[in-house]
Design goal:
Number of domains: 2
Oligomer: single chain
Distance between the termini: 21 Å
Largest sheet: 3 strands, antiparallel
Strand order of the largest sheet: 2-1-3
Order of helices and strands: EEHEHHEHEHH
Number of strands: 5
Length: 141
């Protein structure tokens, strides 16, 4: 795995993880690398403030201590499922109510249309989009 610091054409900075440098180039050419802030697909790599050069020995040690990303993703999804109230398609309206003090602030999860996401961004309401695997995908692994 390789991590790149990325920037969209609107100037948003974010990090992307790829199997190798070729994977980034291939996905970017296919417009599959998307800015998490504005959904822009015009993405470029930017210089990282931290650069590391490692020896072959260090690389083998890293491989031995590799992170199980599938397990990590499952733990994140489980945490969200267990600690956030599922408000379903009412996500945007609940977030707006909390933002304006109509309801008490709490952890919520749910879904929103792209238009609702745009409204939340305009209102300066922070939210995170987390891809959640389908239930039938859980049984495959």
């Amino acid at each position: 795995m390789i991590a790149y610091d990325l920037q969209c054409s609107r100037g948003h900075l974010f990090e992307g993880w790829f199997q190798n440098s070729g994977a980034f180039e291939e996905q970017n050419a296919a417009k599959r690398v998307i800015c998490p802030f504005c959904n822009d697909t015009r993405i470029r790599k930017v210089l990282s403030p931290v650069t590391m050069k490692s020896s072959a020995r260090e690389e083998s040690e890293k491989t031995a201590a590799a992170i199980d990303y599938r397990r990590l993703a499952k733990e994140i999804v489980d945490y969200v499922n267990n600690n956030f109230e599922d408000v379903g398609h009412r996500f945007s309206s609940e977030a707006l109510k909390m933002h304006y003090g109509v309801s008490e602030k709490r952890n919520i999860r749910g879904s929103a249309t792209s238009e609702e996401e745009r409204l939340l961004k305009e209102e300066k309401i922070e939210f995170f989009k987390i891809p959640v695997p389908r239930k039938d995908d859980d049984n495959k692994h």
